Structures are given as C-alpha cells and as structure tokens.
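note to self — DONT lose this again. spent like an hour looking for the file last time. sequence + predicted structure for the chain T wanted, 476 res
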Amino acid sequence: MNNILFVASECAPFIKTGGLADVVGSLPQALKQYEKQEVRVILPLYDEMDENWKNKLEYIGSFDVELGWRTQEAHILTLTYNQIIYYFISNDYYFTRKGIYGYYDDGERFVFFSQAVIEALKHLDFKPQILHGHDWQAGMAIALANILKPIDGMKTVFTIHNIQYQGVMPLDIYEDFFHIGREHISGMEWNRMLNCLKSALFHADKITTVSPSYAEEIKNPYYSEGLHQMLENRSEDLVGVINGIDIREYNPSSDPSLFVNYRSARSKKKENRLKLQQKIGLPYKEESPLYIIVTRLVEQKGLHLVQHIMDEFLEKDVQFIVLGTGDAEFEGYFSALQHRYPDKAAALITFDETLARQLYASADFFIMPSKFEPCGLSQLIALQYKTVPIVRETGGLKDTISPYNVLTGEGNGFSFANYNAHELLNVLDYSLEIYNNPAEWQKLYKNVTKSQFSWKDSAHQYVTIYESLSRELVYG
C-alpha cells in the first residue's frame, strides 16, 4: 500500500482560482480506484472557503511552527469528501484574508504552510511514504521533507503546473524563515533570491509536469523562466503526464448548469445557444457559428493575437463571446469590440462558473491561442461539451488537439504553430470553411464526440511513478 499525501494551495471543490484546484481535486478521485494507493490532501484553511465546508470540519490538534525568530500557532482540521480525507492547516494571521493570493507576503505565507505541513506529519494518524507537492506554494514542503526527513524513507514528487510562478523572495530573509544550516541555501537559491519552485526541483525525487510537450519545452530557455539548465540536468527524473478532467463533473448530459442537457445532438446545443443569447442580449443567428473564449484575460492566453485579427474576422458571418477578467488592456479591448459589433460580439467581463459551462454548451468553436500552456483544461472541457477547439501548438494543447485533415478525416480541432496573428486568422477562416461544408463538419464533429480525456490513463502513469519510488524504498 502506498500512502500518498498531496500538498497544494487550492483544491476543488473547497477553494479554487484555476486549473490547479481542478487537478488536485480530481486526481485523488482517480487514484483511489487503484487498490494499493491511499491518497490524502493537505491544504491551507482560507477564510474564503464556503461556510458549508467549514461547518463539516473536525478539529485534530494544534502545534507551534517556528518561522525564524517568531512562532506561529497552526491548527489541523479534517473532513472526508467522496471517500478522500482532506486536512486543513489553519492560521488566522496568514489565511484569514480576502482572496488567497496577491499579498506582499505570499512567500512567507506559503513557507509557513510548508513548514506546518512537515510539523503536521507528527500529529496525523497517516504516515505517507510519498509526499506529492503541487506548484511553488508547496515547493518548500518538498525541500524540507528532504532536509529534515520527518518520516524515515519518505520519498517526494513535485509537479510543475506553471513554471512562470516560482515564489521568489530576497535571499537575506533565509534566517528569518528557517532553523536549518546555511549549507542548505544553495538548494533554495536562484539568481541570489530564495526560490520556492527551484527548491523543490533541487530536492524532489521525481519531477512531473502536466503534459509531455511542456516537459520538453521547459528545458528550452524560451519557456523555462531561467530554469532550463537545472531541468535539463534532471531530465531522467522529469516526466510529463497529461492532465485529465473529471468527466462526471463536466458532463453535458447531467450538468445542472445547462439550459438543456444533451449527449451529442447539435440541435440541443442550438437550444442552449438560443437561451444563452437571450440571457446576455446577443441576437440569435441560427446559421452563424458561435466562437467563444473563456479565460483569464492575460497575455499568456494569446490575446494580443486576437486583438490584431478579430475585427477582420467579425466581418464574416460569425458571432463571438468572451468571458473572463484580467488585465485592463484586454478588458477594455473586448468591451470596445462589443460596442463596435453589437450584433456579433459580447464581452462578459466577469467570471461565473455556471455561465462558463453555458458557453461551452452553446458554442461551435473554442479559441485558445496561448503563448504557452503547460496543459490547459479548457480545451478538454470544450471537447466534453462537443465544442471544437482552435489552439496554438504548445504544451498540452499540442498533446490533446490534433488538427482536422480533410484528406484522412482525422483530427479533433484546429491548430497553428507560430505565435503569429495571421496564422490564427488563417486557421479561424479554415474552421469557418469546414463549418460551412456539412460533410466535413459532420466528420469533425463525430471526432470531437469521441475525444475524451478522463484521468484513467494519467492516473495509471502516476501510480507507476509512485510504485517506482516505493521499490526504491524497499530495495534501496
């Protein structure tokens, strides 16, 4: 039996800002199907968590965490959901705040969390053989597990969900945070800064990231945010495992968010579209395909490309809806686009999970031209709702979306290679051409309905990684 403890800063359904929460929420559910894997999850207890969850928490105990020259009290609470046990680290000073990220002391907050995780291992009735950390917020937990060895023989896995975010702090606060010798600074330092993500990469027994293509890309200076040489040096320990999604959660035949449930019938998608457009005030045009973007409005998502070509594309017989919030530049651009094309474009500058699902269920095409994308879950959700993805060939987008080929009838979407606005426009034009050819559109739509990215295969890859570490534990 492998006892595995996930360490993460967020997890659906308790607290979520993005795809990390979906992965940490759904992967343990997939792993529990394997008899020899016992997975539990430990998280911060944020004030933002819904009261319905807080009311289910049971108190386990309290302990002190020494953070350099100061001592902070931590409390451990627990609940069980869908047969998975979750632990929560509570501390009013660090986690009783509005939102979960974006504070000047985020580095300190998650160093505290990481130290509290290590200390909590003494107080749990669960002794993990494998500590599995996710993203920089859990990075110091992985490093400290290797340095302090709180459980004899415990192995570590660290997953990079997005290498752009590393948890960087001034190096001179090392003594303010840790009661360990200065000989450990080299494993935590990068470019004369403390770096939480680098600390995990240095100390973890195995490193995974969220798609095979991204695992290769981050060994390249363009994608690595400076860490390419270290990842190249650790190539033998680096594995790309494509993310899955919970296909029970994202299921158009049972999703309560939708106006009309369906399996694959296009007529039902059109019913959803009619009701959606009535809801948001965009005229319904039955013969015009609907293109959507559902994303954070930030540069990474390729929105500069969209800016350059969307006016030209909207001259055609199409409609377009964007949903999301983010940088003022993009919020302003899409709002102005709606003003210029009130019958063709809608800008929903908000984020609403129900509305997002209604968009997926209503659209014909989903646009995701990311500058880089470690895995991407949105294109997988689009496939679940029988909406055709249009993506740039990077990271997990390249691994999950194959371009439609009229000669072979193969492919589940459209893609383009270079980060270039006119390549995006060309592929949008091509998608419209296929849509207007009923025979080709039917072939493509059939391929989309067969595409499914559940956690089954990816969970098996993680089990293989865990078992390889367990064998090292047994045989040395």
